[in-house]
Design goal:
The protein is α+β, with helices and mostly antiparallel strands. The chain contains twelve helices and 16 strands. A hairpin with a 4-residue loop joins strand 5 and strand 6.
Length: about 475
């Protein structure tokens, strides 16, 4: 298995290919499992509808700043992306992962586990934006691949939302028109985990005909067909956003900003109006040719610092009677900014963010109860994300143990989250001081937590402080 980094153009090509090969995949899936299982598979379908594919394309375009309503030209009147989609994803990813502490008790497995999480944030942001993602060990190599939703073809989900039958797509490009497509099928059966690899040589966007795995050097060592008996889980971690799918009612993941698509569109358009207001409101000085020097070719020559300010004209062709005339319209930016801020607040509400995450909270007076409600709304969403992420990471730990032939080992999965969305640092620190005074927390533990000291250093500091503190004082 190799990992190939996607680019924007490749992602677009992938979506087009997905549209063409849904029926092909179903047929190929049935054919690869052979006639003995064909009856059992009859009626099974790829759980990835056309409407879902189209929506994933929209989410990806929005994340790339290329939504349908965006104007890519340099025109001041065009609509540019504010990047609210990426901001929503990064906010949830940062809050979720900054509150997470996770490890495995087994040192060897934990080293690999921490390696998988090293660049997890950036991939997690994509997973939040596209609705789901997979993180999977690349065999026993100690490396990992992160597969976004638009490269996952689901065939069956369990009642808990976990994947039971799925295909992943990877591409090896030969040249502009010719590519190799590898379909890696995973099926969890009563006998164990069934994995198959098939390669197709395609051109001009078609999947083409099947070729041997050895055709591509990087794939030559992969098994065509293997059954791992006794496996009770998939060999990867699967994350899915905790948002109901109202696009096609399936269990496919939905973007974290899906409910705010229209509000994001309006915010981008409002920012376009604001940008145009600034551009159209620039001050100009109309000056006749007697006030501006001319070049030998007859064109006007203006001081470099005045190129945007002076606009020369010929008084013989105008009705003007002044050598200099100023154009300086009043700015209406305050109203546009207020409107933009309101659209941002609507995005925050629909995405379950707290007021002030994207908007300027001070511009609109909010009661303490409203602010508290928005924080609770964000806390509930973050908590739901953490529940699903924990399941993903536990499955990943299992997959790492499997590929390291340590599946029987008690690897000791640990994963905890804090509640800083609802409790700020000062409040938590004040509570810890009360716990120290009450004897529920030692001064050493307090210093280790809040000063980042190891136990020995913290104990020495406490001893030094107590040498100068009066009895009863707190650290």
């Amino acid at each position: 298995t190799i990992r190939i980094e996607p680019c924007v153009e490749e992602e677009r090509a992938m979506m087009n290919i997905l549209r063409k090969i849904i029926d092909f995949i179903k047929e190929a899936f049935n054919r690869m499992f052979g006639n003995t299982q064909l009856e059992r598979l009859t009626g099974k379908r790829v759980i990835l509808s056309q409407s879902m594919i189209d929506r994933m394309q929209l989410w990806d375009d929005m994340l790339c700043g290329k939504a349908p309503w965006i104007d890519s030209t340099e025109s001041y009147s065009g609509v540019k992306s504010l990047g609210l989609e990426s901001a929503v994803c990064s906010e949830f990813a940062n809050v979720t992962l900054s509150e997470m502490e996770t490890s495995l008790d087994n040192d060897k497995l934990n080293e690999l586990y921490q390696k998988a999480l090293r660049n997890f944030n950036e991939h997690f942001q994509t997973g939040l934006g596209l609705g789901s993602m997979v993180v999977k060990p690349i065999g026993n190599t100690g490396n990992f691949e992160y597969i976004p939703a638009d490269r996952i073809i689901p065939f069956e989900f369990g009642d808990d939302g976990r994947l039971l039958k799925v295909a992943f797509i990877q591409i090896k490009e030969i040249d502009e028109n010719n590519k190799y497509y590898r379909f890696e099928f995973h099926e969890l059966t009563s006998e164990g985990l069934h994995i198959q690899n098939k390669v197709y040589k395609g051109n001009n966007g078609d999947v083409g005909n099947q070729v041997p795995l050895s055709t591509v050097d990087e794939w030559a060592e992969l098994y065509d067909d293997v059954l791992y008996q006794g496996m009770e889980r998939m060999d990867f971690g699967y994350y899915r956003n905790p948002i109901p799918n109202r696009i096609d009612k399936s269990k496919n993941g939905v973007s974290i900003f899906e409910k705010a698509v229209e509000q994001i569109k309006k915010a981008d358009q409002q920012f376009g109006r604001l940008d145009w207001e600034y551009a159209s409101g620039e001050r100009f000085i109309f000056a006749d040719y007697t006030a501006v020097k001319k070049k030998q070719d007859g064109s006007f020559k203006m001081p470099k610092s005045k190129e945007r300010l002076l606009i020369p004209y010929d008084p013989d062709t105008t009705n003007g009677d002044k050598t200099l005339s100023e154009f300086s319209p009043a700015m209406r930016d305050a109203s546009y900014i207020t409107g933009l801020n309101e659209y941002k607040r609507q995005v925050e509400f629909n995405c379950c963010l707290a007021y002030g995450d994207l908007s300027k909270n001070e511009s609109v007076e909010k009661t303490a109860e409203e602010i508290k409600a928005s924080k609770n709304r964000k806390y509930n969403m973050v908590n739901a994300i953490q529940v699903n992420l924990r399941d993903c990471l536990e499955d990943l730990a299992y997959a790492i143990a499997f590929y390291q032939a340590m599946i029987k080992t008690d690897f000791g999965f640990n994963c905890t989250f804090h509640d800083s969305v609802k409790t700020d640092e000062e409040t938590e620190r004040a509570q810890d001081r009360i716990d120290v005074a009450s004897g529920f927390m030692s001064p050493v533990e307090y210093r280790m937590k809040w000063y980042g000291e190891d136990e020995k250093t913290a104990a020495q500091k406490i001893a030094e402080i107590r040498g100068t503190m009066t009895e009863g004082e707190q650290p």
